[in-house]
Amino acid sequence: MTTVAPRPTGDPRLVPRPRTRRGLAPGRTTARGLLLGPALLVLIWVLGSATGLIDPATLSPPWTVVSTFGDLIADGRLQSNLLSSVQRAALGLLLGIVAGLALALLAGLSRAGEAVVDGPVQIKRAVPTLALIPLMIVWFGIGEEMKVVVIALSVFVPIYINTHAALRGVDARWVELAESVELSRTSFVRRVAVPGALPGFFTGLRLAVTIAWTALVVVEQVNATSGIGYLMTQARNYGQTEIIVAGLVVYAVLGLAGDTTVRAIERRALSWRRTLGS
């Protein structure tokens, strides 16, 4: 005899509905969501300065920083120094990405390449790039070459680590399928390995963009004659905290803009993937 489950009675709004997998998944972060955290920080800064909890000698009020931005833009100092910083960061980031990708492909697609490349990269990973600055000064001097090389050395490690891990983590079923249809080595790399490694590459790229700005802050305070870091160093010598804070705000905006741009490119490039965030 088949038992039929009784239908629920009463108010249908009180009947529990089954949870779906989609309902438990986090939604995609929007641009408004990304700006919520920085907006809260600015609000705390405004309230702390207005109530006197934050000493102006320690951290200039936001309205003073805004006025400072106006003065720096009016005399052209912000534009010229910002251009120098962006050029250094972009060149170092580009070189680091190329080096990290090349080494990751060499190590991820060849056991011999991994034996040769992975060890030195792990050694570099263990040695802070900033600790290499004295040696970089000896090798390249104190000009632009040293600054770009330091940024590139900081950038290539996260690119390599994440791309290499993604290459080594390509689903074995895809590898078996490629072997069964007798894909050539070139076709396997182009159709299976590289698409499978893209998520890891973009993770490394997000880290690399942030690290590039972090390295730039340091190298621009080593005998620089231009750049946001140089502007902040000069302000430190004269006790102009408002310019220092303005420089920090510029770095923060550049870092956030870079990360947001990479995330947008990642969503477009990986639109074929069905993830929990989609």
Write the layout of secondary structure elements.
Blueprint: H1 21-24, H2 31-51, H3 62-74, H4 77-108, H5 111-126, H6 133-140, H7 144-168, H8 172-180, H9 185-219, H10 228-237, H11 241-269
Helix pairs in contact: 3-11, 4-5, 4-7, 4-9, 4-10, 6-7, 7-9, 9-11, 10-11
The CATH first-level class comes to: Mainly Alpha
Assigned CATH superfamily: MetI-like
Helix content: over 70%
- Element-by-element helix/strand order: HHHHHHHHHHH
Number of helices: 11
Derived from helix and strand composition plus strand pairing, the structural class reads mainly alpha
Q: Ranges with pLDDT <50 over ≥5 residues?
A: 18-25
Tell me the number of strands: 0
End-to-end gap: 46 Å
Provide the CATH architecture: Orthogonal Bundle
**What gross morphology would you assign?**
elongated
Number of domains: 1
Question: Biggest sheet, open or closed, and with what strands and sense?
Answer: none
Q: How much strand content do the residues show?
A: under 5%
CATH topology title: MetI-like fold
Determine the mean pLDDT: 79
Q: Give Rg in angstroms.
A: 25 Å
Keywords: Cell membrane, Membrane, Transmembrane, Transmembrane helix, Transport
Membrane topology: Multi-pass membrane protein
Subcellular location: Cell membrane
Protein name: ABC transporter permease
Any overview of this molecule?
The protein is mainly alpha-helical. It has a single domain (60-269), classed as Orthogonal Bundle (MetI-like fold). 73% of the residues lie in helices and 0% in strands. The protein is built from eleven helices and no strands. The protein has helices at 21-24, 31-51, 62-74, 77-108, 111-126, 133-140, 144-168, 172-180, 185-219, 228-237, 241-269. The two termini are 46 Å apart.
